[in-house]
Amino acid sequence: MLQNIGIPGLILVLVIALIIFGPSKLPEIGRAFGSTIKEFKKSTRDLMSDDDEPTKDKEETQLKQVK
Question: Is the pTM of this model over 0.70?
């Protein structure tokens, strides 16, 4: 969906956001959006690492049984 925007569409979205929120509020919104994305990525990474841990434990147990 966002792959089809292009430069003119992006400029249009930014101009509309500038008109709606104003120049003083736009940096605050950008910072909040950035921190939200950062937290989402961190949570996703944590979930992915949690899924990998049981597999590692299982592999270590199997290696111990073989020895």
Answer: no
